[in-house]
Amino acid sequence: MNEKELVQFMSFRKDGKEKIPLFVCKVNDKFILAVYQGSLSKYDILIKYRQKYKDNWSRIRTPKHIHWAVDILIKMYADRKKTKQFLDFLIEVWDKTAPVKDEERQKKFLSIKYLLETNKNEIRYYEDLGKKGEYSIKFLILLAKLLILQEKTNLETAYMFKRLLTSLKSGEDIFKIVSIASLTKGRR
Q1: Smallest Cα–Cα separation from 23: which of 60, 49, 56?
Q2: Angstrom distance (rounded) from CA 159 to CA 32
Q3: For position 109, what pLDDT does the model report?
Q4: Interval 28-80: pLDDT, tens
Q5: Residue 54 and residue 148: Cα distance in Å, rounded?
Q6: Burial class of residue 56, CB neighbours in 10 A (0-12, 13-18, 19+)
């Protein structure tokens, strides 16, 4: 699919209005990720994706922290040391990410250069982890950067995603991890 076809494929209707993505990325042959204008603030973003399964694309889905956390737990079981290193990398991304407060910054952060090209080395280094669980490392990095950006833009003092990352890294019990990952404000 070319870019125009991707945009059309990832567009949808909600409350009678067409939602057209601000950014679309075909991550690989299995995932397409899109970012839309959100409704919580001027620079809020809404993240959606499609996943290919048995030659068919899923409906457009909203990624949930719980799905992400379960995948990391699977990767942790397969390779604890490398997964903890990966979580350290994501915590560093969290610490360095600032909220979006203007259109120029939003445009910069919603570019493939910022989202993936700046992390080519990490994608290569952690690539084997992507063979465990459901999600590729490229998809997880892209999704994590967008979730961090979304959370910090809507509430600069937010910490839920970082709390999830640190709980996963420190090996908290499954109940605590699932509780953190399941917290929601009803966003769809």
Answers
A1: 49
A2: 27
A3: 84
A4: 999 999 999 988 888 999 999 999 999 999 999 999 889 889 999 999 999 99
A5: 31
A6: exposed
Nearest to 163 by CA among 90, 74, 82, 62: 90
> Which single residue is written with the structure tokens 């700046």?
118
Query: Tokens 């970082």 correspond to what residue?
Result: 162
* Cα–Cα dist 21/10, whole Å: 7
Say how far residue 30 (Cα) sits from the centre of its chain.
Answer: 15
Give the integer Cα–Cα distance in Å for 47 and 150: 9
Cβ of 91: how many Cβ atoms within 10 Å?
A: 16
3-state secondary structure the chain: CCHHHHHHHHCEEECCEEECCCEEEECCCCEEEEEEECCCCCCCEEEEEEEEECCEECCCECCCHHHHHHHHHHHHHHCHHHHHHHHHHHHHHHHHCCCCCCHHHHHHHCCHHHHCHHHHHHHHHCHHHHHCCCCCHHHHHHHHHHHHHHHHHHCCCCCHHHHHHHHHHHCCCHHHHHHHHHCCCCCC
Cβ atoms of 112 and 166 within 8 Å: the answer is no
Closest CA to 62 of 160, 157, 150: 150
Decide if 131 contacts 28 (C-beta within 8 A): no
